[in-house]
Amino acid sequence: MKLPRVVFVTGAASGIGRSVAMRLASEGCAVVVADTDVANGEATCASITSAGGSAICQEVDVRDRESIRSAADEATRRFGGITGLVNCAGLVTMTSLDDLTEEEWDLVVDVNLKGTWLATQEVARDIAATGGGSVVNISTVEAEVVVSSTGHCQVHYNASKGGVKMLTKALAVELAGASIRVNAVAPGPIATNFVSLEGITAPETLEKLKDRLLIPRIGEPEDIASAVSFLLSDQSSWITGVHLPVDGGWLTR
Ligand SMILES: NC(=O)c1ccc[n+]([C@@H]2O[C@H](COP(=O)([O-])OP(=O)(O)OC[C@H]3O[C@@H](n4cnc5c(N)ncnc54)[C@H](O)[C@@H]3O)[C@@H](O)[C@H]2O)c1
Questions:
Q1: CA–CA distance from 231 to each of 20, 167, 177, 234 (Å)?
Q2: Which residues are catalytic?
Q3: Is the CB of 91 under 6 A from ligand 1?
Q4: Atom of ligand 1 minimally distant from the CA of 12
Q5: Where are the domains of the chain?
Q6: Ligand 1 atom closest to 16 (CA)
Q7: Residue 151 DSSP one-character state
Q8: DSSP assignment, residue 190?
Q9: What are phi and psi for residue 32, nearest 5 degrees?
């Protein structure tokens, strides 16, 4: 299996992004850990380099074009170009429709949707310059269905990730001519700090969710990392524009 040589991973300081970065590095990729959280980004890099891999940490806010550009330029200086991108940076606030403010709407939509567009617009130029490659966006099952496990849904989060699903298809069309494939992975519930690690791994949570899960466990970040690795690699060379659920069967019924 052949993977892109240099992969830019946003949100790689924590959770799914960190697991993706570690997995890709263990498979021989050089990784750009791009996150607002530099302390934890450096920790991801330290784990990669101490295992013999290659990584640099760059302070990137996906809402800020300049920070993306500067990190991409640094990656090109250090590794000679970029051949893959994983858009994993994301957040949610657990606010109901009634209480949702414009600031929260803007924050969640800007990081999850605008950030995915901005990072892809910038980094796709570098990928095109190396002759093509692959982009993977991290979406969610909540781009397809409303979950509302807390008793209310997060309309801003659903809207942002529904946007990521369609953005993935539009980018696949736009970037096909540059030999860049664009796909998305849509995780079900994964054990990370996204909302609360303690909450998602509590036995009551699995009890509440297990009707939806054909495979009755909470997902691990590594479940998502293996799908990302596949979609970045030449094993998926005839796949573009898909929104692949990795969800223990959540979306099946
Ligand atoms: N954990 C889940 O259950 C779950 C389910 C479906 C989808 N997802 C998606 O997976 C992605 C990763 O989530 P996670 O579970 O690993 O959460 P996480 O909180 O552990 O990681 C998110 C990372 O994104 C970074 N980030 C936030 N805003 C940023 C910005 N403006 N610029 C750059 N980096 C920024 C954070 O610093 C953090 O390192 C998100 O897009 C999320 O929507 C998570």
A1: 12, 17, 18, 8
A2: 157
A3: yes
A4: 39
A5: 6-190+221-252
A6: 16
A7: S
A8: B
A9: -100, 110
Q: Output the pTM of the full model.
A: 0.98
**What are the mean pLDDT values of the chain's consecutive 10-residue runs (253 residues total)?**
90 98 98 98 98 98 98 97 98 95 98 99 98 98 89 92 98 98 98 96 93 96 98 98 98 95
Alpha helix stretches (DSSP H) within the chain = 15-26, 38-50, 65-79, 102-109, 115-129, 155-175, 197-201, 203-209, 221-232
C-alpha distances out from residue 92 to 29, 116, 175, 194, 241, Å: 30, 15, 28, 8, 25
Distance 190 CA to ligand 1 centre (A): 11
169: tokens are: 């298809």
Please state the φ and ψ torsions of residue 192, each to the nearest 5 degrees: -140, 180
Q: Identify the CATH assignment for 6-190+221-252 out of 3.40.50.720, 3.40.50.1000, 3.40.50.170, 3.30.479.30.
A: 3.40.50.720
Ligand 1 geometric centre to CA of 11 (Å):
6
Between the CA of 52 and the centroid of ligand 1 the distance, in Å, is: 26
* DSSP-based three-state secondary structure for 218: coil
Instruction: Confirm or reject: Cβ of 41 under 6 Å from ligand 1.
Output: no
